[in-house]
């Protein structure tokens, strides 16, 4: 045989590598090779298995929830529990959205590709000293896909997703917010490789003014310093900030990001694509996404999903699981009515709308006699 067993230690070693390889090849099957990227790399040619395909079909270890749980147990003891209270940590397998579920602009797609290449060639970037890579700021109104894109990127790149809990990071106690900011970045470094996502980034990185409390200025300064000291190249952490209010960001915060990515409201073509995507599993008679897109000017991807929800629920009330184009048109009208109410400035405006058809003559003043 081609093995030798050490009776004292109980270990087994190969004494004839070529014979061992021949023995394995005679007994292996192509499906076993394709299920193991290492075997595909060595034996792929003999079994007609492509290494790249095998690698893509097998997620890396950091994508596994058990791997994340192991890291949390290894790197965070009882004294560190308060650090984990500041973030929500999810493995790629736990993220329900992928980039295939999102309609991106050309610029957004290009940036996602650049990020993927930067991660793939991180060692090269380190060699040439290009460390200021991997700090992205997503800018756009609510519902335009900033959070979904960050999560979809984590899913595609098989990276743990570390999302900051703003409700936990901001503290009523002087100086605590700055300390919490430092802890968040420390968590990301311990869990690397990962994506650190900070939604409502402007909430912490607000513009500093002369009359602000020193604690607020200290929190902003700590955030800027923490951003400076973290890097995709040296720390294996991809930082993504997102904001609905770019005008409220501190000017120095803008300069910390190597890429500012716009998330505008979708145009008519994008809306048609989004409608087609979100309805892909729904039976719809006489479906015309272009016509629906033409009636939804100003709506975001999130809004369009709400429109679909309304149409589906209305159909279910009638015991129908097949929708019609008219169902979706009616749902658009209902959504616009609700959106109008949301945008009213005061209750008096709502009352004015309710009674807009009435005049003072409809309700004459009582006769003083």
TrEMBL record:
AAA+ ATPase domain location: 132-267
Any GO CC annotation of this UniProt entry: proteasome regulatory particle, base subcomplex
Family matches, as Gene3D superfamilies: 1.10.8.60, P-loop containing nucleotide triphosphate hydrolases (3.40.50.300)
One family name in Pfam for this protein: AAA
InterPro entries in the record: 26S_Proteasome_ATPase, AAA+_ATPase, AAA_lid_3, ATPase_AAA_core, ATPase_AAA_CS, P-loop_NTPase
GO molecular function, a single term: proteasome-activating activity
Keyword flag Nucleotide-binding: yes
GO biological processes: proteasome-mediated ubiquitin-dependent protein catabolic process
Keywords: ATP-binding, Nucleotide-binding
PANTHER family with a match to the protein in the record: 26S PROTEASOME REGULATORY SUBUNIT (PTHR23073)
Entry similarity comment: Belongs to the AAA ATPase family.
Protein name per Swiss-Prot or TrEMBL: Aaa superfamily atpase
Organism: Halobacterium salinarum (strain ATCC 700922 / JCM 11081 / NRC-1) (Halobacterium halobium)
Lineage of the species this protein comes from: Archaea, Methanobacteriati, Methanobacteriota, Stenosarchaea group, Halobacteria
Gene that produces this protein: atp
């Amino acid at each position: 045989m081609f093995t030798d067993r050490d009776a004292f230690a109980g270990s087994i070693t190969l004494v004839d590598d070529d014979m061992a390889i021949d023995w394995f090849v005679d007994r292996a099957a192509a499906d076993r090779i394709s299920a193991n990227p290492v075997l595909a790399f060595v034996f792929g040619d003999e079994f007609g298995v492509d290494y790249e395909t095998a690698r893509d079909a097998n997620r890396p270890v950091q994508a596994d929830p058990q791997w994340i749980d192991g890291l949390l147990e290894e790197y965070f003891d009882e004294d560190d529990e308060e650090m984990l209270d500041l973030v929500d940590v999810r493995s790629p397998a736990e993220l329900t959205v992928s980039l295939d579920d999102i309609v991106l602009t050309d610029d957004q797609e290009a940036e996602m590709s650049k990020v993927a290449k930067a991660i793939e060639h991180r060692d090269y970037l380190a060699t040439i000293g290009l460390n200021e890579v991997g700090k992205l700021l997503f800018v756009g109104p609510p519902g335009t896909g900033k959070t979904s894109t960050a999560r979809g990127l984590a899913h595609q790149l098989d990276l743990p997703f570390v999302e900051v809990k703003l409700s936990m990071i901001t503290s009523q106690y002087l100086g605590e917010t700055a300390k919490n900011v430092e802890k968040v970045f420390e968590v990301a470094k311990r869990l690397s490789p990962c994506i650190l996502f900070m939604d409502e980034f402007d909430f912490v990185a607000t513009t500093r003014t002369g009359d602000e409390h020193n604690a607020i200025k200290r929190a902003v300064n700590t955030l800027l310093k923490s951003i400076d000291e973290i890097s995709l190249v040296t720390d294996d952490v991809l930082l993504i900030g997102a904001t609905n209010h770019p005008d409220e960001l501190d000017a120095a915060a803008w300069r910390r990001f190597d890429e500012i990515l716009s998330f505008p409201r979708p145009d008519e073509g994008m809306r048609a694509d989004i409608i087609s995507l979100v309805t892909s599993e729904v039976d719809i008679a006489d479906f015309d996404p272009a016509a629906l897109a033409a009636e939804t000017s100003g709506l975001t991807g999130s809004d369009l999903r709400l429109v679909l929800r309304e149409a589906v629920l209305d159909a279910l009330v009638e015991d129908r699981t097949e929708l019609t184009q008219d169902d979706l048109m009616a749902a658009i009208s209902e959504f616009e009515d609700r959106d109008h109410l949301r945008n009213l400035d005061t209750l008096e405006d709502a009352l004015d709308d309710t009674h807009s058809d009435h005049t003072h003559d409809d309700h004459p003043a009582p006769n003083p006699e």
